Amino acid sequence: MSTSSGRREMAEQKSIWVFIEHTDDHIADVSLELTGKARELADQLGYEVVGLLCGHDVDALAQDVIHHGANRVLLADHEELALYRTLPYARVAIAEARARKPEIFLIGGTPNGRDFAPRVASALRCGLTADCTDLQIGDYYIKKEDKTYKDLLYQIRPAFGGNLIATIVNPHTRPQMATVREGVMRKPAADAARHGVVEKVTPSFEPGDFALEVLSRQVRKSTVKLKDAPVIVAGGAGVAGAEEFALLRDLANLLGGEVGASRAAVDAGMIDRAHQVGQTGTTVRPRLYIAAGISGAIQHRAGMDQSSKIIAINTDPNAPMFQIAHYRIVGDVAEVLPMIIKSLRERSMDQRDAE
Predict the structure, then answer these.
(1) Fewer beta carbons within 10 angstroms: which end of the chain, N or C?
(2) How confident is the model at residue 236 (pLDDT cuts 50, 70, 90)?
(3) Strands 147-159 and 258-261
(4) What global pTM score does this model have?
(5) Domain 231-354, what architecture?
């Protein structure tokens, strides 16, 4: 699939790989976020960061990966890779990983990433941890072996229905594989002065790789932009139906923000799933997050606990959300939100009169 000299060079240099997703000549944010995290981990370990970029006529994207932290980009350019399909993409990744032996392989927790990662992990016979909320480096001692494994990837995620945080390690097989949802890691700023190597690899396929044929492709862009919203007003099970969600929308409009929701509110049919915040929704870091009637299950907190300021409104003074909130309001959403909206409108009117 590529030159043997390039493979030997990489086999000698330990590496962290990132699967680079892209659509319409645009790299997915989650891939650049993971490239930045890989750079952070690699600097601790003295490893190389490698981006695996598959596609057709995507040479220009390779430099963007390097500018965000990669030392090297493995570029598999082929017309059969123009659109994502499981088998051709996995064929490239499996062959290159077997030859070059990365220590760590990170994949975005997107629909394509969730399809791609288990296929590759199964072929490489290694572990895979899904939807990690943090990645760290550390050691692990196994008493039965009386051995300490150094510099393992700590794959951290909520477990057992969110009742605890699990740290998962993979001491015996390589690569150590994990998926991470978009927004969990911070995307680094691009550094145009950073240089790296773009190494072209030549894919080889088997006839069975093309069992699936893409006949047409339709893209529907989301109208909900939670990830980039400076303010999010989110509702949970404590919001009593559509009328109170209308209050959330009024407040979000006044503050120039977006409406979010917990999984409980989405499952209850009060709002579309595109608004869901949390481990199974969107991970956000707004300047202000208002949690109205959200108890604060760990899965929800994992998706918003990096917000700069958190205001929690709940009738239960012991709600877990209060543990991470900067401002706590014990009260009914139906009573508190109208007061906040009224105060903001009056202040806005006073400012206009003063002008």
Answers:
(1) C
(2) very high
(3) unpaired
(4) 0.85
(5) 3-Layer(aba) Sandwich (3.40)
